[in-house]
Write a structure and sequence with these properties.
Elements (H helix, E strand, L loop, with lengths): L4 E4 L4 E5 L10 H7 L4 E5 L14 H15 L4 E6 L1 H12 L4 E7 L8 H12 L9 H11 L2 H6 L1 H11 L4 H11 L16 E6 L7 H5 L8 E6 L6 H4 L1 H17 L1
Parallel strand pairs: 2-3, 2-4, 4-5, 5-6, 6-7
Antiparallel strand pairs: 1-3
Helix pairs in contact: 1-11, 2-3, 4-8, 5-7
Length: 258
Amino acid sequence: MTDHYEERGSGSGIVFMHGAVMDRTMFDDQLAALSDEFRTVAVNHRARTERWRGPYDLWDLADDLEAFLDAIGMERAVIAGMSMGGYVALRFALRHPERTRGIVMIASTALPNTPEEQVEFAKEFDKVKDEPTVPRDWAEWVGSVVFGETTTRERPDLVESWVRHWMEYSGPSLVDEANCWLPREDLTDRLSEIDLPVLIVHGAEDVAIPLERATVMEHQLPDARVAVVKGAGHTVNVEAAAEVNDRIRSFLREIEAG
């Protein structure tokens, strides 16, 4: 299990849940920066472990998170989820509110994909269903979706490092992962039940989840605030780590202050 999570620091806990086609290492900058003050944990969900085979859904991953908290002895935590991880965070808060101190929604939303988006994404993932490792052209397509225009132009080395990383993934695990998040339900009508502090962090250049799909949650959640990060795309916490870390630190301190 230790290969599938990393923990640093002590104090109040925050658990980071990665997005689809990502893994726990996308939060390396967050763990490095925030572990001086908080107990920081980044964990892989099923798709990046030996339990990758589906079917499973987002509610299953929420229950997995509860079991993980039990395993590491963390009674309550702030749950920080990027994209798919945010979908899990909302479901975790709804099903296990007593274990949730707050939520950080990073490049995420309560809304489902449109039917047209579901069809288009399904077509793309179908291309790798039989691939033992992802081909470069498919990994480059992922990069075009998740990295913002500014990062793609100014930090090609960062994009390339992730392209190489994605080429190590197995196609079937990505397909089963996509089948978990693509058909998700709309949680908009249930957001009023999440009476917890929520920080919504979103890149202004996000094309995977347009900004308005995230900011709309500010008015639907009882206690939410929004931070829009300029010059960043879907992987906002990777592309603009310093700014995102400052936002999360302030949010955690706000929770600590009560």
